[in-house]
Amino acid sequence: RARIRTVMKTVMIVTKPSDVRLIKLTRELVKYLITTPRYGKDHGVVIYVDENLKNEKRFKYEELLKSSPLIEDNLKFWTRELCANQSEIFNFVLTLGGDGTVLYTSWLFQKVVPPVMSYRLGSLGFLTNFDYQHYHEHLTNAMEKGIRVNLRMRFTCTVYRRIVTSDNKMMAKRCGETGEIMMENIMNGNGSWDAVESKAPIDSIAEHHCALDKNLPCFVTQPVETFEVLNDLVVDRGVEPYMSLLELFADDEHLTTVQADGLVVATPTGSTAYSVSAGGSLVHPEISALLLTPICPHTLSFRPMLLPDSTELRICVPFNSRSTAWASFDGRGRLELKRGDHIKVTPSKFPFPSVCLDNQSRDWFTSLTRCLRWNERERQKGFVVVEDHVTDNETDHDDKGEENDAGPYKIHNTSNSQSDDDDTSTKVEEESEQGEKNEDLHCSSEETGSGSSGGEHEEGDEPGKWRVVTRGKS
């Protein structure tokens, strides 16, 4: 991925608000960026920090102003309103915290997002690839050599609310014979009817062939809120004891009826969050797709699935649902979906540009190993048991009834292959035609029970096979 060189005149710093130890690091970073000359000037860049830090005692704002005359002119404060209405004034964003701080930054910028460099100062740090101890090197390289950016996909969630009216002028008719739903075309006013739902299957028609035509009241919805989501949209049952009943549509086609504790609609970035905990797959950030993952579904066949990012999803709460549903967007903005409400999910026009430490794929695989311990386990040992040469002292110990660490039995590989490494090689025993045996490699065990016979008993005494030798008590 090619480097992007841009002039970073204005830098925004987003600090994890609940971590007081990061306030000192923010103060250190502000002083460094302002007082270090950049781009041929005698001062650095303009810095914006959280407005709440101005009155924070640990930030020591008044003392910071006295430390250098450059700070008073180049240190400013950002607010949520400023990020929402004038996001274009920021050229670069630095986050100090964990993954939650990165998601909060995405939440601040609901439209265009500046490039974001995230320092790993939180708990998990899957999305934070940079080590704060090397911030001098990172920032110098970013401003002088450019940056590599990963455009992470976001999607737009629009909440539609049902409009409640006193009279239902819009009516639909369900055909009793075919199950087809027809709505009166009120656009042209000619009294014609348009089909809004296709005919029922043949077997279903046979079961309900005696049903009569039925008039159905219709309702109108209107959009009320819109959210840009980087991680996931979660629709669940909330505090209700009943499972969620949701109707899922893809490109205006009924996809399925969700009967589960909830549903997760995740981006590739969010595939390593709630979705993977619910059994969803890991999706590489370069794959543009929507990941549907049910939460504790009531059917065994409801498995996670990937849909193209161009798919328009609608998640509806039907009128026959026992309870309402609750929705959250990147863990924020939690709201209730009443019967008749729905959420439309479409691809966003504003991706989230995160700065890569090395390259996109390597950063992602490194995070999988570092944070999730992906596919890590103790390596399985081979069948070959490596054993040193048995000495005369060990033979004496065996005769006295002492067992070594290998236990009462020792197994040797009698295959004809031998390694060049003395520490890991397996001794090879070759049996001569006259029946001579090599006494250097043997297995011994002490039988403490009565009736043990002396001498040796050999099993599998063939070249290239495993051989167990037991020695009786002499």
Question: What's the short version?
Answer:
The chain has 474 residues and is an alpha+beta fold. It is built from ten helices and 25 strands. Strands 7, 12, 13, 14, 15, 16, 17, 18, 19, 20 and 21 form an eleven-stranded antiparallel sheet that branches. Strands 3-2-1-4-5 form a five-stranded parallel sheet, sandwiched between helices. It has a four-stranded antiparallel sheet with strand order 10-9-8-11, with no helix packed on it.
Task: Provide structural commentary.
- Belongs to the NAD kinase family.
- Keywords: Kinase, NAD, NADP, Transferase.
- It comes from Ambispora leptoticha.
- Pfam families: NAD_kinase, NAD_kinase_C.
- This protein has 474 residues and is an alpha+beta fold.
- It folds into four domains: 10-153, Rossmann fold (3-Layer(aba) Sandwich); 165-217, no CATH class; 222-350, Tumour Suppressor Smad4 (Sandwich), CATH 2.60.200; 380-474, no CATH class.
- 18% of the residues lie in helices and 30% in strands.
- It contains ten helices and 25 strands.
- The strands form five sheets. Strands 7, 12, 13, 14, 15, 16, 17, 18, 19, 20 and 21 form an eleven-stranded antiparallel beta sheet that branches. Strands 3-2-1-4-5 form a five-stranded parallel beta sheet, with helices on both faces.
- The protein is globular and about 85 Å long.
